[in-house]
Design goal:
single chain, alpha+beta, Alpha-Beta Plaits, subunit c (vma5p) of the yeast v-atpase, domain 2, five-stranded antiparallel sheet, four-stranded antiparallel sheet, 19 helices
């Protein structure tokens, strides 16, 4: 990675940023305040048009957000889960700032006017619907009673109260009124077999205070009768109005859906173009500024540094000064791997990027990740299913998302590996092929190219094999750690941290093969080097940790056996279900299909998680530190647009 400190004239800064942004091969570093203070350079400011662009961008995003809920094209479950956006890119030409503002206003303003008009109508409809529903809820207790609202109006001689009361309080209210008024009251239950009862209480005007005191103690929910006419007519009219308003609301929402189809893709386009313009406006806040120049600190891959230098000189007409520095420890990291390995870069990033000039473990991780997943999953038919799933993912969604494209490639690798180990162990949906198709009682072993781990004593053959694989994987980690340390000229670390631990197992192997003197010498020398580098506690932790890491690879066999064992159990249950009278022909296939779907999902997850753990803990723990910062290019991120020379 190459750092380029560039001093350019202010008259060229906008044109330079436009060129750098379109090329997308540099990262513009945010200059530290301490550095600028030390150099006595003030920080530059965003361009004046930044506020205009930000305002337009906010308006475009608000309009998109508002239309999202009315977007008629609903995504399927899988597309929603994978966050697939099928939007096709719209061809556009490059625009000047004034052209972009004019183009944005032509799309945003009519979209806002239409949306505001429809939203105003919708709010009015919702408000009226709310009022009508409140009316229905309030007067529903009077339905089918043939009552008129005038019966409940206040008169010169009578005081009337209408309300909702808890059922258990009705008797208490009546007792209270009787004790105070004897027969000078009328209490009518209008409805209610439920917990709440609608009541009407009528007393003489001079007894109004006594009634109010009684209902206050009963916590009556008073209903105000503010309508005129028969309640049945009022409720019927409200229901009719609700139906009319519901249809009108549906029409407005349909108009919103049509508007969304018309404007949303173009609003996405405008928002993207404005976001790109905003980035170019605000990037100057990362830079230093003098009266006539600006200072930019750029990072670019060394292979691109000469091209970037030529671009800067051409754009500024030579009015620039460039200082290049290479291989700095704080440089950002750009992973560069062969094409077949790149899908695995996401796994490295999920753990941590390597620091600059540290060994990139992605190429080391890829082959063993494929191998370990296949060993643990180890079923030919399951592998075929993974490959088919990978093909469908890649074909249907790969062109819309690079992450899905990479994931589909990983799944295909895992599928082929699973097929390979399925052939070795004879696992075709467990023992389904060997026992139930070919009729051999030995099951998977009958068609295995090597050994079924669950047949007779084959497990004892696999145990030393998985420990040997674990030893080789851990040992390779120490080897790569030593190589990386030597490459960075950290000779002491290479000897005390890595070579020392490599010598210990070599000594034990030599001792076990009767080369005792050399074996003892290497083992003792290894322990001495570890002690010198880490002390007595470090010696204990590193040696025990190395042995524990090797033993941890027993999970390879455990997952392999569990995948086959569960499949065998499913086959056995399906076979037994077949003998059930009448229902067997239906139940057996259901048990078989559902069981294998569950086994496929659980073991796929388990195989991935445990493979990930073997690499993150056991393998990376031997040599890899991480802690790098990803190279983030200053570039145009185009998801909804593509640049063409001329739009027809």
């Amino acid at each position: 990675m190459c750092r380029m400190d560039c001093l350019v004239g202010k008259e060229h800064k906008e044109s330079l940023v436009v060129r750098l942004h379109s090329e997308g091969v540099v990262e513009v570093e945010f200059l530290d305040d301490g550095f600028l203070a030390e150099e006595n350079i003030p920080r530059d400011k965003p361009l004046e048009r930044f506020s205009v662009v930000s305002d337009l961008l906010s308006r475009a995003k608000r309009a998109v957000e508002h239309l999202n809920s009315y977007w008629p094209e609903k995504t399927g479950f899988l597309e929603g889960l994978l966050e697939v956006d099928r939007t096709e890119k719209i061809p556009v030409k490059r625009m000047s700032y004034s052209e972009l503002v004019h183009f944005s206003e032509e799309i945003i303003s009519p979209a806002e006017r239409s949306a505001n008009s429809l939203q105003h109508r919708l709010q009015g409809i919702d408000s009226r619907i709310s009022e009508l529903k409140s009316t229905v809820d309030r007067y529903l207790p009077f339905k089918n009673l043939g009552l008129d609202s005038k019966y409940f109006e206040e008169s010169p001689f009578l005081h009337t109260v209408v309300g909702i009361l808890q059922k258990e309080n009705v008797g208490l209210l009546e007792e209270g009124l009787y004790s105070k008024l004897e027969s000078r009251y009328l209490l009518v239950k209008l409805s209610g077999e439920s917990e709440n009862v609608a009541i009407v209480a009528i007393v003489l005007k001079e007894d109004a205070d006594l009634l109010e005191d009684s209902i206050r103690k009963m916590r009556l929910n008073r209903l105000s009768v503010d309508v005129s006419g028969k309640f049945d007519d009022i409720l019927a009219n409200a229901e009719l109005d609700l139906n009319v308003l519901s249809k009108e609301k549906a029409e407005v929402e349909e108009s919103f859906s049509k508007m969304s189809l018309e404007y949303k893709p173009r609003l996405h386009l405008v928002a993207e173009l404005l976001e790109i313009e905003k980035q170019k406006c605000e990037v100057f806040a990362r830079c230093g500024s003098t009266e006539n120049t600006i200072l930019l600190r750029l990072w670019t891959p060394q292979t691109k540094s000469k091209c970037v230098e030529n671009l800067i000189e051409a754009t500024t007409e030579g009015n620039c000064a460039i200082v290049k520095t290479t291989d700095l420890e704080d440089a950002p990291v750009l992973l560069d791997n062969p094409q077949w390995v790149r899908p695995f870069e996401s796994l490295t990033k999920m753990f941590s990027l390597p620091r600059y000039n540290q060994l990139d473990p992605t190429l080391l991780l890829a082959p063993t990740f494929i191998l370990f997943f296949g060993m643990m999953f180890s079923d030919f038919i399951y592998g075929v299913i993974l490959i088919l799933a990978a093909f469908l993912l890649h074909r249907n969604y790969g062109r819309y998302s690079n992450s899905i494209k990479d994931a589909s490639v990983l799944v295909a690798y895992f599928g082929f590996s699973s097929m390979f180990f399925g052939l070795l162990t004879g696992s075709f949906l467990g023992d389904f092929a060997g026992k139930y198709i070919f009729g051999n009682e030995t099951g998977s072993q009958a068609i295995a190219l090597w050994l079924d781990p669950l047949y007779n004593g084959n497990m004892m053959t696999y145990i030393p094999l998985v420990f040997a694989i674990g030893f080789a994987h851990v040992f390779s980690g120490y080897f790569f750690g030593a190589y990386d340390a030597l490459r960075r000229r950290q000779y002491k670390a290479a000897l005390l941290d890595y070579v020392s631990l490599m010598l210990f197992p070599i000594g034990l192997i030599l001792y076990a093969t009767k080369i005792t003197s050399i074996g003892l010498l290497l083992s003792a020398g290894s322990l001495l080097l570890v002690f010198l580098g880490s002390g007595i506690m470090g010696l204990y932790l590193k040696v025990s940790g190395m042995l524990g890491n090797v033993v941890s690879y027993a999970r390879l066999l455990a997952l392999m056996a569990s995948s086959s064992g569960i499949a065998m159990a499913i086959n056995f249950l399906a076979s037994m279900s077949m003998s059930i009278p009448y229902f067997g022909l239906i139940l057996s296939p259901l048990v078989f299909i559902a069981g294998h779907i569950v086994n496929l999902g659980l073991n796929m997850l388990g195989s991935f998680v445990h493979t990930l753990r073997l690499h993150y803990v056991e393998f990376f723990g031997t040599f890899y530190e991480g802690g790098g910062v990803e190279f983030t290019p200053f570039t145009e991120d185009r998801r909804y647009s593509k640049i063409v020379e001329e739009v027809k």
